[in-house]
């Protein structure tokens, strides 16, 4: 079922809707974009071609195929670093300068303390896991994703095998985090503390990946029934 009907909308609004899907669900196929937005194949191609021409989108690397199947897999598209940058990174230069000054004045400890306080301000409303059950871990991971979404990270969760992954499709501070990895490290510490289990960071936007992904193991015999 399409999430929006935009064929008659202003061209800029339609382009923004395509960009939003690339951000939140990419890599995604042109067919999926058309189905979600009620666009024709020609309309999807027009917007994708324009975004690729400006360097804001690109075709994602083809997934590794297990075994030999029929035909080629459909091409999937995703935003580039340029595309994310145009979504807005407020006060990057000022924030980076402030962080550098903090490091000069207080050293690494001051930067680490700031990073922890920042994450606490984002996740202060998320209650830590108490029972350690799979269902509680999954619910808490969803609470973490919701808190990050409220802060502009476009986060979500997904079940993968016997675990759950927290995915942040956008990072409003990625340019600063490139220079100060303490911001990402503090997030990981907070996830571990709140979820009560060892978590693993698989990818980060600050390192050039398409999105930030954190894997959270869930007891296989105690996952929530779906």
UniProtKB/TrEMBL annotation:
Top-level taxon: Bacteria
Region named Disordered: 55-74
Gene3D superfamilies per the UniProt record, alphabetical: Winged helix-like DNA-binding domain superfamily/Winged helix DNA-binding domain
Pfam families in alphabetical order: HTH_20 (PF12840)
InterPro entries: ArsR-like_HTH, Carb_Metab_HTH_regulators, WH-like_DNA-bd_sf, WH_DNA-bd_sf
UniProt name for this protein: Transcriptional regulator
Lineage: Bacteria, Bacillati, Actinomycetota, Actinomycetes, Mycobacteriales
């Amino acid at each position: 079922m399409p999430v929006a009907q935009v064929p008659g909308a202003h061209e800029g609004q339609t382009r923004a809707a395509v960009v939003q899907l690339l951000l939140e669900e990419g890599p995604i196929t042109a067919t999926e974009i058309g189905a979600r937005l009620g666009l024709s194949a020609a309309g999807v191609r027009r917007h994708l071609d324009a975004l690729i021409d400006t360097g804001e989108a690109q075709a994602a690397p083809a997934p590794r195929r297990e075994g030999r199947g029929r035909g080629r897999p459909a091409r999937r598209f995703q935003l580039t670093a340029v595309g994310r940058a145009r979504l807005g990174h407020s006060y990057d230069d000022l924030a980076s300068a402030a962080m550098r000054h903090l490091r000069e004045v207080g050293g690494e400890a001051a930067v680490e303390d700031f990073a922890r306080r920042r994450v606490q301000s984002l996740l202060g409303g998320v209650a830590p896991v108490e029972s350690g059950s799979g269902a509680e871990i999954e619910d808490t991971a969803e609470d973490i994703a919701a808190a990050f979404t409220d802060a502009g990270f476009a986060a979500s969760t997904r079940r993968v095998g016997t675990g759950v992954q927290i995915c942040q499709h956008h990072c409003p501070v990625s340019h600063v985090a490139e220079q100060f990895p303490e911001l990402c490290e503090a997030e990981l510490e907070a996830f571990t503390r709140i979820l009560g289990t060892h978590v693993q960071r698989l990818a980060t936007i600050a390192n050039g990946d398409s999105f930030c992904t954190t894997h959270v193991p869930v007891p296989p015999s105690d996952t929530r029934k779906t």
